[in-house]
């Protein structure tokens, strides 16, 4: 059984190997809190790395956000509305009173528009103060997510990086933040994959502004087991549970709320993987016997149908030979 980590927004301070070690060490901490150890070797752990591809977006995020809003027009501003609505949802989740903020800044109703950069900036600055992520982190997060959802070329490139490190053998997939969305999309587009369990951490798919780009959200056919969605109640990106609007699958999403991160940033990957409940979910999935997929069963039946007559004939021939020898 393989373990696939799918990271989220740009990790500017880590290369691929460093980031894989960071994730693995965090999970080992979560496992140790349940008295467990890693049930697979490090060679069975993969972390598809796309940080280099996003680095250009990250370094220009503040300027790019401003240009995106300012260059939008009245008739074509759906993408700008994504930024605006996402910010409003996150602000509400962090406890910011948008109405009071607008009054304090003397911004009238007609100016509270996705096309008004001054209004968008006011929300961003309030989030900066409330979340204490640093001046550009929230902007990087939003802009990278915005580009992934609205740019089909970038989306294909990121999805391919992840898909190319997942073969058809059973695996457990753990996604964090934007990585949860990427993992979901890859699984939806590749029903032949054998994902025994999907674990999403700090997953923003419950936000209405994000789910609008993914509707209808359903259980991927490549998922052979359960989907565990883990939420820190203080993570502003993951406070809303995911709603399945269309699914014919046997499995459903198990929402695990109430997690309390030990890190200052409640969206931080380490805070999630350090948790003993998350460690247990990963361990149980890795240690379990993989479920046979419908594709595997179908292949077995096809093989039986093809070889069955020959095997039967061989048995009859062997029996006939035994009878001749006897007489």
From TrEMBL:
Record-linked InterPro entries: AB_hydrolase_fold (IPR029058)
Domain of life: Bacteria
SUPFAM superfamilies in the cross-refs: alpha/beta-Hydrolases
Stated name of the protein: PGAP1-like protein
């Amino acid at each position: 059984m393989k373990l696939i980590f799918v990271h989220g927004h740009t990790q500017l301070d880590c290369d691929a190997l460093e980031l894989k070690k960071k994730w693995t060490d965090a999970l080992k901490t979560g496992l140790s809190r349940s008295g467990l150890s890693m049930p697979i070797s490090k060679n069975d752990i993969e972390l598809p790395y796309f940080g280099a591809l996003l680095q250009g977006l990250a370094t220009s995020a503040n300027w790019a956000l401003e240009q995106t809003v300012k260059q939008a027009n009245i008739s074509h501003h759906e993408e700008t509305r994504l930024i605006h609505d996402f910010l409003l949802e996150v602000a509400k989740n962090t406890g910011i009173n948008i109405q009071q903020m607008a009054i304090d800044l003397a911004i009238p109703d007609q100016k509270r528009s996705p096309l008004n950069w001054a209004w968008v900036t006011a929300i961003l600055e309030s989030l900066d103060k409330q979340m204490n992520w640093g001046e550009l982190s929230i902007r990087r997060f939003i802009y990278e997510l915005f580009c992934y959802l609205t740019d089909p070329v970038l989306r294909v490139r990121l999805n391919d990086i992840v898909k190319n490190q997942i073969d058809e053998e059973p695996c457990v997939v753990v996604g964090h933040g934007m990585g949860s969305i990427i993992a979901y999309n890859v699984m939806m587009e590749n029903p032949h994959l054998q994902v025994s369990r999907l674990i999403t951490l700090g997953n923003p798919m419950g936000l209405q502004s994000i789910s609008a780009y993914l509707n209808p959200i359903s259980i991927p056919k490549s998922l052979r087991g359960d989907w565990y969605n883990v939420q820190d109640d203080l993570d502003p990106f993951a406070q809303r549970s995911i709603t399945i609007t269309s699914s014919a699958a046997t499995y459903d999403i198990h929402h695990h709320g109430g997690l309390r991160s030990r890190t200052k940033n409640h969206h931080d990957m380490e805070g999630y993987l350090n948790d003993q409940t998350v460690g247990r979910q990963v361990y149980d999935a890795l240690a379990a016997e993989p479920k046979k997929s419908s594709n595997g069963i179908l292949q077995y039946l096809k093989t039986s149908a093809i070889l069955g007559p020959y095997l039967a004939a061989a048995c009859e021939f062997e029996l006939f030979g035994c009878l001749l020898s006897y007489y």
